[in-house]
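pinned: reference chain
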Amino acid sequence: MAGCSQPGPAATVAVSVYQAPPPPAPGAPTVNVPTPTNPSSVTATVSWNAVSGATSYKVYVNGQQVWQGDGTSCQVNLVPGQTYQVQVAACN
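pinned: its structure tokens
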């Protein structure tokens, strides 16, 4: 058998940690707002359909996160007479 040389220069390789892609966003949520009995606040129920691969959800009202959890509904406080944009994000 023939002889071998010393090993050549090393190659440095960094392997990224695998991160699963995020699940798709749920469709538009349903927001059930009861008739206000208080002039400064009303508690609304936000609900949405589960998304395959999601382990939790975040609810946003006018772009601000107001809830995070693993259910498919939550309650949020709103001010009567105002208009709101309510969105849900699916997380994993």
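why pinned: The chain has no helices and six strands. Strands lie at 30-32, 42-47, 56-61, 64-69, 73-78, 86-91.
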